[in-house]
Amino acid sequence: MLIITIKQGKEKSLLAGEPWIYASAIEKVDGKPNEKMKAGGTAIVQSSSTKFLARAAYNSKSQIRARVWTFDEGEPVDHALIKRRVKAALAKSAAAAKKARPDQVVKLVNAEADNLPGLLVEQYGGKDGYLICEFQAAGVDAWKVPIVQTLIAETGCRNVYERADELVRKGEGLSFVEGALAGDEPPDEVPVTENGVKFALDLKTGERYKFR
């Protein structure tokens, strides 16, 4: 298990609930070399006096060295936690998803706001449409399989596509990956109506076009 020790005085932001740990706040990282190099591996975060502060996803290649999963010492980071977080995010966005028309895009998971740092999920076309996921941090990227499995189980939507922002993933030291994670890829363009305005949207890239 990796152990991140925070510099004395730098733990204040964590105690206040800040979920990001920058390289400048870290005194040292203890652990096996292969664990340190594994993007998204779980680490215990402690103060300079070895007091438990959090469990976080560690990434040696990012300026945000760690993103907090939990401040609760008794809460392990495992499949059960990931499933709970995804289900909670979907429950929070359920009303908006239920009201959405088939030609609307609905945000189902919103990264840190849903305690899933770096994960963005949108839905188009309801149950028979598409889930579009972006894994913008190493932690959620490492848990991609259980995240997708839970999304499918809870929404009933069988088509899941991974969209990628190349610059964001490069900044995280992650490879540029995009494509279908389950089911079919979305078409090149779908009609979308937003605030009464109709346009064409490429779900695979997020690009908008004048509706033809």
From TrEMBL:
Lineage: superkingdom: Bacteria
Alphabetized Gene3D superfamilies for the sequence: PUA domain, RNA methyltransferase domain (HRMD) like
Compartments reported by the entry: Cytoplasm
GO biological process: methylation
UniProt xrefs under PROSITE patterns: PUA
Keyword RNA-binding among UniProt keywords: yes
InterPro entries: PUA, PUA-like_sf, PUA_sf, RlmI-like_PUA
CDD domains referenced in this protein's UniProt entry, alphabetically: PUA_RlmI, RlmI_M_like
PANTHER family according to UniProt: RIBOSOMAL RNA LARGE SUBUNIT METHYLTRANSFERASE, S-ADENOSYLMETHIONINE-DEPENDENT METHYLTRANSFERASE DOMAIN-CONTAINING PROTEIN
One MF term in the entry's GO annotations: methyltransferase activity
Key words of the record: Cytoplasm, Methyltransferase, RNA-binding, rRNA processing, S-adenosyl-L-methionine, Transferase
Any one Pfam family match given in the protein's UniProt record, by short name: PUA_3
Protein name according to UniProt: SAM-dependent methyltransferase
Residues covered by the PUA domain: 2-91
Predominant subcellular localization, coarse grouping: cytoplasm
